[in-house]
């Protein structure tokens, strides 16, 4: 049976928070009193009602740029890499490593277009031989940050809706008091610039599948292939049991000859 209007309403967490006279704490406990719900922004990784901190090195101010279309501003900044910058468990920029940013801010009709490059050193391990490796990282990115009066697609609210039909799937982050947070953009750019399967050398031979030794350290390393059907006999050769059995087998014909005579 389809859910009624009431169940549908209370099935939405954000609508439930608006209607219920309780405030839910992060630990799951319920507190009395009416409050506004806190919506989270998965792209920014923070609550929407949390204001940007201008002291954050990855937060940039656009007030100096102004709103005149065509205005340009170039910025250079060295920041410490945030935690978990890269591909988890494969390769990434260690936390605290310097990241050099070169940014170009351009004022357009509906916001600020940010184009830039991030340079740093990524560390990981070779997927073939598991040896540590380092790679010079250069990640390019471009992001549009819309003005507050722009709609969800970054278009001006005064614009013709027909003009924005092609941009329905675009997601543009709004400016907050003239500030924008570059960290989500930086994370996406770094992941795209890093190799999914890093290797120390293109011709890395990897590890021996039998004993795990690094093949580049011993180029002639190999194991003699043994037919599985003869594996049991190979074990007997080392103990000498095969030779003893041959001697016994060789004596039996002589005994049989005497018995025949």
Polypeptide structure, described:
With 261 residues, the protein is α+β, with helices and mostly antiparallel strands. Among the domains are: 33 residues, no CATH class; 148 residues, no CATH class. Helices cover 20% and strands 28% of the residues. The protein contains five helices and 13 strands. The strands form four sheets. Strands 6, 7, 8, 9, 10, 11 and 12 form a seven-stranded mixed beta sheet that branches. Strand 9 and strand 10 form a beta hairpin. The longest helix has 20 residues. It is rod-shaped, with a radius of gyration of 34 Å. The N terminus is likely disordered.
Mean pLDDT metric: 75
Low-confidence stretches: 1-45
Which outline best applies? rod-shaped
Strand content: 25-35%
Radius of gyration: 34 Å
Number of helices: 5
| Residue share in helix | 10-25%
Span between N and C termini? Answer: 99 Å
Secondary-structure content class: alpha+beta
Short description:
The chain is 20% helix and 28% strand. The chain has 261 residues and is an alpha+beta fold. Among the domains are: 5-37, no CATH class; 46-193, no CATH class.
Outline the secondary-structure elements:
Elements: H1 5-10, H2 13-19, E1 22-24, E2 30-32, E3 40-41, E4 46-47, E5 59-61, E6 72-80, E7 85-87, E8 91-93, E9 98-107, E10 111-125, E11 132-146, E12 173-174, E13 179-181, H3 183-193, H4 231-239, H5 241-260
Parallel strand pairs: 11-12
Antiparallel strand pairs: 1-2, 3-4, 5-13, 6-9, 7-8, 8-10, 9-10, 10-11
Describe the structure using short key phrases.
261 residues, 5 helices, two-stranded antiparallel sheet, alpha+beta, 20% helix, 28% strand
